[in-house]
Design brief:
Number of domains: 1
Domain Hemerythrin-like: 18-126
Oligomer: single chain
CATH topology: Four Helix Bundle (Hemerythrin (Met), subunit A)
Order of helices and strands: EHHHHE
CATH architecture: Up-down Bundle
GO molecular function: metal ion binding
Distance between the termini: 5 Å
Bound molecules: fe (ii) ion
Family: Belongs to the hemerythrin family.
CATH class: Mainly Alpha
Protein name: Hemerythrin-like metal-binding domain protein
Largest sheet: 2 strands, antiparallel
Keywords: Iron, Metal-binding
Structural class: mainly alpha
Length: 152
């Protein structure tokens, strides 16, 4: 029996859509890696922070594509994505200028993302499940979770 264990995407945050769950885990993994990398360190790897924003951007575009394919009105959710990206880009600019602490940026990004999954993405996937124009892919743990799997 395979037991999926992931330190970065707890069961409570799974939405049941493999592509979305895998992207959620990637974002959390990047945040954790950045937190570990800049703990007790004044050096900020700007390229890695930019890669985190790229992961957010890709993830938001994925959800928007899935919604469009399913014919679901996604305007309000997409606005949340745009507003958040604007805010994160501005906050990262502040980090680069030394006006904002990198850890504070990461804590905010992590808190925001967890709340967004619980409140917005779960509702989105529930709407997908109710849509007669869309068939939800078979649910399974994200591919990256194999790194954390154990056999019992
Ligand atoms: Fe979303």
């Amino acid at each position: 029996m395979e037991i999926a264990l992931s330190p970065f995407l707890p069961e409570a945050l799974l939405v049941g859509f493999p592509e979305i769950d895998a992207q959620h885990e990637e974002v959390f993994t990047r945040i954790e890696s950045l937190k570990a990398g800049c703990f007790g360190n004044t050096y900020v790897d700007i390229a890695e922070f930019q890669a985190l924003l790229d992961s957010f951007t890709l993830h938001f575009a994925t959800e928007e594509r899935i919604a469009e394919d399913a014919g679901i009105d996604f305007a309000a959710h997409a606005k949340i994505h745009r507003d958040t990206l604007d805010l994160l880009r501005k906050a990262l600019g502040d980090v680069i200028k030394g006006e904002r602490d990198a850890h504070a940026f990461l804590r905010y990004a992590e808190y925001w993302f967890e709340r967004h999954i619980r409140e917005d993405d779960k509702r989105f996937v529930a709407t997908l499940q109710e849509s007669r124009h869309f068939r939800l892919p078979r649910s399974r743990r994200p591919v990256s979770n194999r790194l954390f799997s154990a056999r019992a």
